[in-house]
Hints:
By secondary structure, the chain is an alpha/beta fold. The protein has helices at 2-9, 25-33, 44-53, 71-74, 87-99, 123-131, 133-136, 156-177, 195-200, 210-213, and strands at residues 15-19, 38-41, 59-62, 80-84, 104-111, 141-149, 186-188, 205-208.
Amino acid sequence: MFEEILKNLAPYGAKLVAVSKTQSPEVIMEWYDRGQRLFGENRVQELVDKQGALPPDIEWHFIGHLQRNKVKYLSPFVSLIHSVDSLKLLQEINKQAQRQSRVINCLLQFHIAEEDTKFGLNLEEARTMLSAPATGALDYVSIRGIMGMATYTDDKVQIRREFRHLRSIFNTLKAEFFPGETSFSELSMGMSGDYLIALEEGSTIVRIGSLIFGERS
Ligand SMILES: *Cc1c(COP(=O)(O)O)cnc(C)c1O
């Protein structure tokens, strides 16, 4: 299945984040040995523990809801935070990144699904955030693009519509706030059940867990 996923991604040039939440370091090493270097986790403590136990050339992506008081645990090493949903969180990431003398790459998370359980911004909130003078002053964060999760449903038409909506938000923000900036280029969408649709709709990063590792217990 892993090889098939890579084969499906190749024509699009999209990146694979292997979502290793709940998987042991030993299991993660099996995929590392097959060449995978990007792994995603959604809990801070679990991520910190695994980072300490696994090879330093792994790029760790944080994909879960992030509380401000936990940013400091990720700031020494995290390579991309997919889930920024407030200016306050972005400011805290900037502060902790400065302490580490590094720039931390971030994506803004959008709420595109029907369920109200999923975190994220809407377009107006993002506009307010990106046009705030305080945002312009953040030298230690780099906003690389956006992320979103489609509704958990079998309705492929709905999933495609939601991904298309996310893509249009990306295009709008790019034109309004990042014209000509190649750094704003990532669209993180697509999971095990819907990544093929996400690729067709312009995803540049898919986040896949159960299709690689098997169902989580
Ligand atoms: C768990 C998770 C995934 C992967 O889900 P699968 O259905 O196992 O592929 C992707 N993105 C986020 C934000 C997740 O929490």
